[in-house]
Design a protein that fits this description.
The complex is a heterodimer of chains A (107) and B (120). Chain A has 107 residues and is mainly beta. In chain A, 0% of the residues lie in helices and 44% in strands. Chain A has strands at 9-12, 18-23, 33-37, 44-47, 61-66, 69-74, 83-90, 96-98, 102-106. Chain A is globular and about 40 Å long. In chain A, 38% of the residues are buried. By secondary structure, chain B is mainly beta. Classes of the chains: A mainly beta (107), B mainly beta (120).
Chain lengths: 107, 120
């Protein structure tokens, strides 16, 4: 079955660039999306259709992809960016699918 | 502003049926879009459960399909989830959300989530 694979954790110091990856065989044909989930809260969309930012999302969040790998980049990560990040896409049947999540630590 | 609010029992006994409702405000379900349920076991990742269109057309996660029923009540502007024969593995925070249809389907508005514990 189709999967989206993320590293369990990423750690950076404040002001550094954080990169979170997501790999999936269908990503060359499907857009990746990224959700941020802070502790005890519902997920929030931060990147859609590979690289677009919803209204209200800071410019330091960006997305890109190449082949089977998608990357969420947080340029100049801040303490408030500490959260779990999930990549998302759909499988060949159009079913929603989430990656396993990456815990971003900023300290 | 679209808002979603989950409601239902926070405790369900093993082998029984979990029932949740999602009330939508700020948007009429009859106007379109798919609406879905997602769950998250404590300390784990997100899992899509299933989705429903305002017409009643449904599609479910194949791994849960045999136990899941999602229905919609447009007169009350809400949709519901039933998950049968629950076990402790079904303990999770359950979210309802709207599926936006752009190039793909993706979740744009989410409820705050409700914790359902399966225990005797």
């Amino acid at each position: 079955s189709y999967e989206l694979t993320q590293p369990p954790s990423v750690s950076v110091s404040p002001g550094q660039t954080a990169r979170i990856t997501c790999s999936g065989d269908a990503l060359p044909k499907k857009y990746p999306y990224w959700y941020q989930q802070k502790s005890g809260q519902a997920p929030v969309l931060v990147i859609y259709e590979d690289s677009k930012r919803p209204s209200g999302i800071p410019e330091r969040f960006s997305g890109s992809s190449s082949g089977t790998m998608a990357t969420l980049t947080i340029s100049g990560a801040q303490v408030e960016d500490e959260a779990d990040y999930y990549c998302y896409s759909t499988d060949s049947s159009g079913n929603p699918l989430f990656g396993g999540g990456t815990k971003l630590t900023v300290l | 502003q679209v808002q979603l609010q989950e409601s239902g029992p926070g405790l369900v006994k093993p082998s029984e049926t979990l029932s949740l409702t999602c009330a939508v405000s700020g948007y009429s379900i009859s106007s379109g879009y798919y609406w879905g349920w997602i769950r998250q076991p404590p300390g784990k990742g997100l899992e899509w459960i299933g989705s429903i269109y305002h017409s009643g057309s449904t599609y479910y996660n194949p791994s849960l399909k045999s136990r899941v029923t999602i229905s919609v009540d447009t007169s009350k502007n809400q949709f519901s989830l039933k998950l049968s024969s629950v076990t402790a593995a079904d303990t999770a925070v359950y979210y309802c959300a709207r599926l936006y249809s752009g190039y793909d389907f993706y979740f744009d508005y989410w409820g705050q989530g409700t914790l359902v514990t399966v225990s005797s």
